[in-house]
Design a protein that fits this description.
The structure is a homodimer of 191-residue chains. By secondary structure, chain A is α/β, with parallel strands linked by helices. Chain A has helices at 17-29, 40-46, 66-75, 91-100, 113-122, 142-160, 165-172, 176-185, and strands at 8-13, 32-37, 54-58, 82-86, 104-107, 131-132, 136-137. In chain A, 46% of the residues lie in helices and 16% in strands. Strand 6 of chain A pairs antiparallel with strand 7 of chain B, so a sheet runs across the interface. The structure holds a DNA duplex (30 and 30 nucleotides).
DNA sequence: GCAAGTTGTTGCTAAAATACAACAAATGAA
DNA sequence: TTCATTTGTTGTATTTTAGCAACAACTTGC
C-alpha cells in the first residue's frame, strides 16, 4: 500500500554501493523506507517534492562533498535532521558538521544504526538558529560598537568556514579583497 | 599589577606535563593567564572563588575523566566555555562532548590554538554596563546584519534619551543631521 | 621542476557615509 | 504676537568604504 506502511522515510547519501545496500537492508527489515542517492546532485533532485524523516549523509563523496551539501541545505532552511557519517574524520570535521547543524556524526562502517535511527525519529531535534548573542556595549560610539559587531560577525564566519576567505566573502556579501582589508582594519588575524 | 594585565584567565586541565607547559607558554606569550590543573579534583578546587574565561580540558585523565567532569559542571550550571581536547577520540565521543555543552573539540597536539582562544573570548559578553543581547542572524549579509545592529543601537539610545536627537547624536559620535539621515535610511520613526 | 590554483597585497576609482553649513518649519515662553 | 530655541531638510565637500583589476608569493598536484 505504498508509503503509508513505513515507519519513516530515510535518505541515504553515499557513493559506496556496498555500504548503502547494507544500510537499506537493515532499515528495510524494520519497516523504514530507505532511498539511496549516490551523490549530492542526485540527492538534491530527490528532495524535491519528497518529505524525508532523516538524512544519512557521507562526508566524502565525488563531486560536491557532504559537508558542503550540509551547509547548503542548512542555509536554505532545510529542517529534516541530518546525520553525517565517515570512515575517518578529524575532530575539527566533526565539530564543524555539528556546528553547521548536523545532529549526529557516525563512524563507518556503522554500528548500532537502528537504535540511533529510532532515537532520532521518536524525538526530533529542534532546528538550530543562526542567531548569535553579540553582547556589545551600547555606551560605545556607534562606529566603535559597529566595528565590534562586524568583528564578531566575521570571526563567526571564519570559524564556521575554516578560515576560507572566498567562502566567508560570499556569505558576507563582500568582494574577496575587500574582506582582506576589513579583516586587517578590524585587527583580525585568522591564523 | 597582578591579574589586571591579562586578556583572560584560562584553566588547562590535563595530566600530561609536556602538553600543558607548551600551551601555557603559547598563551602566556600573548597575555593570557593560564592555570594548570593535572586532574579533575585539582580543577574542582581551582574553580572555587576564581573566575575563568575559558577551560581547556583533556578527555582522558586518571581518576575522573574529562567527559564526566564536563557533564558534572554543565549540570551544575557552570557557564564558562569549555573546550575538550584529546589525542584520539571516536566521533561518538566528540558528538557527546558537544551535546553535553562543550563549545569545541580539539585534537592533541593542538594546532591553531590562538585563533580559537581569541574567537571564544571576543564573543564573551561583559558582565554589566550598556550591554545588549542583539540576537542578530549572522546568516544575513554583513551589510544587512550591520544595519539591524545599528537600528537596535539607535532605538536603544532614543528610548534612553526621550527621543532627544542632539543627545543621541552626541552619544553615538555622529553629527546631528547625519543622525537624521541615518534614522531615515534605517526606517526609524521616533514618534 | 613546472603549471595551475589559491592566498594575500596594493593601486585606482566609484559609491556610500559623514561633516559642515544654511535655512525652513515648528514649538514654547513671555 | 514676537522671539528664541529646537526640530527637520537639503546642498555640498570631504572622508571612508567597497569593488575591480593586476600581480606577487605561496601551495598543491603531477
Amino acid at each position: 500500500m505504498g508509503e503509508d506502511n513505513y515507519l519513516g522515510r530515510i535518505l541515504i547519501i553515499d557513493d559506496e554501493k556496498e555500504n548503502t545496500e547494507i544500510i537499506k537492508d537493515i532499515l528495510g527489515d524494520v519497516n523504514y523506507h530507505a532511498v539511496i542517492a549516490s551523490g549530492a546532485s542526485e540527492a538534491k533532485a530527490m528532495i524535491v517534492g519528497h518529505e524525508f524523516d532523516l538524512v544519512l549523509m557521507d562526508v566524502w563523496m565525488p563531486g560536491q562533498d557532504g559537508m558542503s551539501l550540509l551547509d547548503e541545505w542548512i542555509n536554505a532552511g532545510f529542517d529534516t535532521p541530518i546525520v553525517m557519517m565517515s570512515g575517518h574524520a578529524e575532530p575539527s570535521d566533526i565539530v564543524r558538521a555539528l556546528k553547521l547543524g548536523a545532529i549526529d556524526f557516525l563512524k563507518k562502517p556503522l554500528h548500532d544504526l537502528l537504535p540511533i535511527v529510532r532515537n532520532i525519529l521518536t524525538r526530533q531535534a529542534p532546528a538550530e538558529s543562526n542567531q548569535e548573542v553579540s553582547g556589545i556595549d551600547f555606551s560605545l560610539k556607534l562606529k566603535e560598537a559597529r566595528n565590534l559587531f562586524e568583528k564578531q560577525y566575521l570571526l563567526h564566519h571564519l570559524a564556521l568556514h575554516d578560515n576560507n576567505i572566498a567562502v566567508v566573502a560570499e556569505k558576507a556579501g563582500l568582494e574577496r579583497t575587500t574582506l582582506y582589508r576589513k579583516l586587517k582594519d578590524l585587527g583580525i588575524d585568522k591564523r
